[in-house]
Amino acid sequence: MNIAVSPTAEAPSARARVQWTRRWESELQLTDHAELAEFFRKSYGPTGAFNAQPFEGNRSWAGARPEVRIIGYDARGVAAHVGLLRRFIKVGGVDLLVAELGLYAVRPDLEGLGISHAMRVTYPILHELGVPFGFGTVRPALQKHMTRLVERQGLATLMSGIRVRSTHPDVYPNLSPTRIEDVIVVVFPVGRSISEWPAGTIIDRNGPEL
C-alpha cells in the first residue's frame, strides 16, 4: 500500500470539504490521468524524488494498475486517492482473493484528512466488490501510525513478521525480476472474519505491488 501521508491528527474541516467519488479505470480520460499524475508527484515528492518518479508525464499508477479508484475532490482539485485491485495472492500455500489497496495519498495541504476517513468511504465499495478481505502493506516505520489510525478503530489488523514477494513492474538488465520485502501486512476483514485469514509467513503477489 503506497502511502504518502504524515502522522498528523485528522482535521474535521478538511473532511467536510472533500467530496468522494468512485471511478472505474476505464472511465478515466487522459485529462484525469494527467491531473492524478500531478497529484501523485506533489504528494509523493516530499517523501523522496524516487517515489515521485513513476508518475512522470501522464502516468497515474506506479506498479500494478488499479481496477477502481476512490478519489476525493475539493475546490482545488484532487485532494485524496485510494486505488483498489482485485487479485489472487498466495498466503503460505493458499490462494486467496483480496482487494489490494494502494496508491493512497493525501494532498500535502490536507495531510490531516486521515486514512481512517478514507477507509470508511472505501469499505462499502469493498463489500460491493464481493471480496473476503482487503489487503495492503506498509513500511515498518509506519506501524505505530497505522495502529492508531486503523487497528485501534477496528478497521483492520496489522501483521508483522511476514515477507511479501512481488514482481517489478518492468524488467531491467542485471536486476532480479522479483523482490522480497519485510513489511507490515494490513488486513481489512470484509466478507470473512480475520480468523479465516490463512497462516503463513510468506505472501506472494504474483505481480507488481499496487
TrEMBL record:
EC number: 2.3.1.-
InterPro entries: Acyl_CoA_acyltransferase, NodA, Nodulation_prot_NodA_CS
GO cellular component: cytosol
Top enzyme class: transferase
Record SUPFAM superfamilies: Acyl-CoA N-acyltransferases (Nat) (SSF55729)
Primary localisation category: cytoplasm
Highest taxon listed in the record's lineage: Bacteria
Keyword terms of this UniProt record: Acyltransferase, Cytoplasm, Nodulation, Transferase
Pfam families recorded: NodA (PF02474)
Recorded GO MF terms: acyltransferase activity
Leader sequence segment: none
UniProt-annotated location(s): Cytoplasm
PROSITE patterns: NODA
Family (UniProt): Belongs to the NodA family.
NCBIfam families for this protein: nodulat_NodA, PRK00756.1
HAMAP family according to UniProt: NodA
Known role: N-acyltransferase required for nodulation. Acts in the production of a small, heat-stable compound (Nod) that stimulates mitosis in various plant protoplasts.
Protein name (Swiss-Prot/TrEMBL): Nodulation protein A
Phylogenetic lineage: Bacteria, Pseudomonadati, Pseudomonadota, Alphaproteobacteria, Hyphomicrobiales
Gene: nodA
